[in-house]
From TrEMBL:
Pfam families: PfkB. This is Ribokinase. Gene3D superfamilies: 3.40.1190.20. Residues 5-338 form the Carbohydrate kinase PfkB domain. Pathway: Carbohydrate metabolism; D-ribose degradation; D-ribose 5-phosphate from beta-D-ribopyranose: step 2/2. It is an enzyme of class 2 (transferase). Belongs to the carbohydrate kinase PfkB family. Ribokinase subfamily. Catalyzes the phosphorylation of ribose at O-5 in a reaction requiring ATP and magnesium. The resulting D-ribose-5-phosphate can then be used either for sythesis of nucleotides, histidine, and tryptophan, or as a component of the pentose phosphate pathway. Substrate binds at residues 13-15, 41-45, 159, 286. SUPFAM superfamilies: Ribokinase-like. The active site is at residue 286.
């Protein structure tokens, strides 16, 4: 059987994280507890989650994981933090382009200790936008890493330009393409995602906030009087199955757990794992998505028809929940994602 292959096309950021007992009010100056500079970006975090999910033991990796993205040239943070963390997690960085025209993306993150490690994030895209706006070049880099004769998984988020994302979705959702698209609309583009772009997506993974914003895509199919913000997952998921042929819908519900639904009728909820103390929720969603995508890629590599994944989806969601629970107990983004052999 060919090894599972996963290609993450997305962002790489340097995270400047301030830990504070509480957030300052407008006009207020507050003394915070600590500042940390760490590797992040939703794309790179998810690539690391896929890489780490594929190490059942420290010396054996069962999936091939590649990162496609862009950073600023000669960036010491990329050289000292991002690249070593990616590579040390079994992720190929051959598809990461170093650009002389822009800086590496950055994120300013405030982690509020009194609010169970809840975060607020401000992102400056930098090279994640300027280096990812030429779709043909991005596709060429992807095709060099994803073997077209094998079925693989492509993972996309919302931190590269929307136009690029839409073109990539069209390409990878085309039935002629052997790749399966896992799309995590995080963050949701302000202009949303048109319903036709979602057509044929294998996995749509959202948190509660993203799920509400993504109802824009299916707004034409809401019943009169139905309020998008009040839809429960059992009402929302079928809209994506029926009107956009999305095969799997996942909705993470924070500390409660995660909901799953497939177009072939398997639905359920997997509660999150118990956590002693939440210190930082950054990258918990990325950990969930990366772990789930890896389980899905293992299934895809078997060549079995998609409906057969119904038998495996619940255990894949439970495992992704466990990994996310491991992540929230450590500080930082990428560095807090557990290896499979640790959970
Ligand atoms: O999902 C967490 C990530 O969001 C952070 O690492 C930060 O870079 C932002 O992109």
């Amino acid at each position: 059987m060919p090894p599972p292959q996963i290609c993450v096309i997305g962002s790489l950021n340097i995270d400047f994280v301030t830990y504070t007992p509480r957030c300052p009010a407008a006009g207020e100056t507050l003394t915070a507890a600590a500042l940390a500079i760490s590797a992040g970006g939703k794309g790179a975090n998810q690539a690391v989650a896929c890489g780490r999910a594929s190490f059942a033991a420290p010396d054996s990796q069962d999936a091939s994981v590649a990162m496609i993205g862009a950073v600023g040239a000669d960036d010491p943070y990329y050289a000292a933090l991002l690249r070593p963390t990616l590579e040390g997690s079994g992720v190929s960085t051959r598809g990461v382009q170093e650009r002389t025209d822009s800086q590496t993306g950055s994120a300013t993150i405030i982690v509020e200790e009194a609010a169970r490690g809840e975060n607020r994030i401000l992102v400056v895209p930098g090279a994640n936008h300027t280096g990812m706006d030429q779709v043909d070049a991005v596709l060429a880099r992807t095709q060099g890493l994803l073997h077209s004769h094998l079925e693989g998984v492509v993972l996309l988020q919302g931190e590269i330009p929307r136009a690029t994302t839409l073109r990539l979705m069209k390409h990878f959702n085309d039935p002629a393409c052997r790749a399966h698209l896992v799309f995590n609309p995080a963050p949701v583009f302000p202009e949303g995602i048109p319903l036709p772009a979602l057509a044929g997506t294998s996995v749509l993974a959202m948190n509660e906030t993203e799920a509400v914003l993504m109802t824009h895509s299916v707004a034409d199919h809401l019943r009169p009087g139905q309020n998008a913000a009040e839809l429960d997952p059992d009402e929302l998921a079928p809209l994506f199955h029926h009107h956009a042929q999305v095969h799997i819908v996942l909705i993470t519900l924070g500390a409660k757990g995660a909901y799953f639904s497939t177009a072939t009728g398997k639905r359920g909820f997997a509660p999150s794992a118990a956590v002693e103390k939440v210190v930082d929720t950054t990258a918990a969603g990325d950990t969930f998505v990366g772990y789930f995508a890896t389980a899905f890629a293992r299934f895809v590599a078997t060549g079995a028809p998609l409906p057969e994944f119904d038998a495996h989806i619940e255990s894949a969601v439970r495992r992704a929940n466990l990994a996310a629970a491991g992540c929230v107990q450590r500080k930082g983004a990428m560095q807090s994602i557990p290896f499979a052999y640790e959970i």
